[in-house]
Design brief:
The protein folds into three domains: 126 residues, no CATH class; 106 residues, no CATH class; 129 residues, no CATH class. 52% of the residues lie in helices and 2% in strands. The chain contains 19 helices and three strands. It has a three-stranded antiparallel beta sheet. It starts with 23 loop residues before the first helix and ends in a 10-residue tail after the last helix.
Length: 459
């Protein structure tokens, strides 16, 4: 018989199939699982997972590992974490592959990584399969449970709490250091602006070089030592710059040159803008403009103030034909105050409409010659923002002169766009005049169509 052993007398290492390859970390997790004595009073297993989730970044747990723990925790029950029991779960590989979206090889690697970080332990059965049983009260029968043991996570609660608190403290310290750096850098730039504004005798090169030499700290993982050194350098640079600029200003304040510069108004209000805008920040008005209506002869307002039982005044003869002649026509309320929309035909409204609106109508599949008033109103509505008219102004115009009248008013404003600075306010003014009975849209339309809008007055 031939001896196949080498000269050293030792057989080559063998690999046994079906046996888990252990490591020092896996042995440690098994020891931690054996010492499990239950969770603290009032804590559930989901509280444990929430603490692990918060401490994932400082503890070095990846998000995929935390997600794996979340899936495993779903198979556990509260009574499994009580003293005398062990949180052992036995989901099959197929179930975990579906839950985590992994292949079998990737799942095995993922579970081994989680176990190597001391979060789970393997409780293997003689056959290598995972299974378990519970009694009639739902408690685990530990002698008949084999799978993945989650109890090592409870051993790391205190470590996770300390890591989470330290991480939050470091984040707050980083925010404070970045805030101090930003304040110091802006103060140096303000000092340089003062030097250039008043033409002071100060050498700005050291300060500009100092700003350029500050290290970049935009990375959230910048070491605290580098960030702290950057803040100290920026604050020291700020102290030197402000000291030199203040000294130069004190020295130049008595000179006539600085006094004359200030008297000539070199310091403008917009120069005090903290962002340095040459025209100042824009202020957007979010409330409706209040229009003075004292000059409008509002018949409705006068009727409300008229004492009870007093006869109503007779209408102006010059306006009676307009108010009475169009009653009952149009879109329902167009003839209430006689604003003249019923004297405007659809063909006239189409002629008032700008070319862009006609092109929009054609693109929408509506032939302009066959367009109805409904189509015209829709076209006017969809072009309000292009003209500069708000939704509230449109609704006010519809209430005062009807939808047809509001559409004609929008066409008139679009035709006179170059002459109107505030289209939204202009439409509101037309609505107020319609309520007072002073609006005559047909005259404005006729003037525009004849090419003499400036000679025929305004709407």
């Amino acid at each position: 018989m031939i001896d196949a052993r080498p000269e050293s007398g030792r057989l080559p290492p063998r690999r046994y199939a079906g046996v888990r390859r252990m490591s020092p970390e896996l042995y440690q997790t098994q020891d931690d699982a054996e010492t499990f004595e239950g969770l603290p009073e009032g804590m559930t297993h989901w509280d444990v997972f929430a603490l692990l989730d918060r401490a994932a970044t400082p503890m070095g747990f990846s998000r995929v590992e935390i997600d794996t723990l979340r899936v495993l925790f779903k198979f556990s029950q509260p009574q499994d974490w009580r003293p005398g029991s062990r949180p052992v779960v036995w989901p099959s590989n197929e179930t975990l592959m579906i839950e985590l979206g992994l292949s079998r090889t990737a799942l095995k690697y993922r579970l081994r990584c989680v176990a190597s970080k001391g979060l789970i332990a393997f409780r293997d059965s003689p056959t290598g399969k995972r299974f378990g049983h519970r009694d009639h009260q739902g408690a685990l029968i530990l002698t008949a449970c084999f799978g993945i043991d989650l109890s090592p996570t409870a051993r790391r609660l205190e470590e996770c709490e300390r890591a989470s608190a330290r991480h939050e403290m470091e984040r707050g310290l980083r925010r404070e250091l970045r805030r101090r750096r930003t304040i110091a850098v802006k103060a140096v730039r303000q000092a340089l602006e003062a030097v250039w504004e008043f033409d002071l005798e100060v050498d700005t090169c050291p300060f500009e070089d100092g700003l350029a030499g500050l290290p970049e700290v935009s990375d959230p993982w910048t070491p605290l030592g580098v960030l702290s050194a950057c803040v100290m350098a920026a604050e020291a640079l700020r102290a030197r710059a402000e000291a030199e600029v203040k000294a130069a200003l004190d020295a130049a304040s008595a000179s006539s040159r600085l006094g004359q510069s200030v008297n000539r108004g070199v310091v403008h209000p917009e120069d005090l803008d903290p962002v340095g805008s040459p025209i100042g920040p824009d202020i957007q008005i979010t409330t409706d403009l209040i229009i003075d209506k004292s000059n409008y002869r509002n018949a409705a307002l006068r009727s409300e103030r008229r004492p009870a039982g007093s006869p109503s005044p007779s209408p102006d003869p010059s306006r009676r034909g307009i108010a009475d002649g169009v009653a009952g026509k149009g879109d329902g309320n167009s003839g209430r105050h006689g604003h003249g929309v019923d004297y405007i035909s659809r063909s006239m409204a189409l002629k008032l409409m700008p070319e862009t609106m006609r092109a929009f109508m054609v693109e929408a599949g509506v032939e302009p010659r066959g367009a109805s008033w409904v189509n015209l109103v829709e076209v006017a509505y969809w072009h309000l923002s292009d003209i500069g008219i708000s939704e509230s102004a449109w609704q006010q115009a519809c209430a005062a002169m009807g939808r047809n009248g509001a559409a004609v008013a929008v066409f008139i404003i679009a035709a006179k766009r170059d002459e109107i600075r505030k289209p939204d306010r202009y439409l509101r003014s037309m609505a107020y005049r319609a309520e007072a009975g002073d609006l005559q849209l047909h005259r404005s339309a006729w003037g525009i169509l004849r090419g003499g809008a400036a000679e025929h007055g305004h709407a």
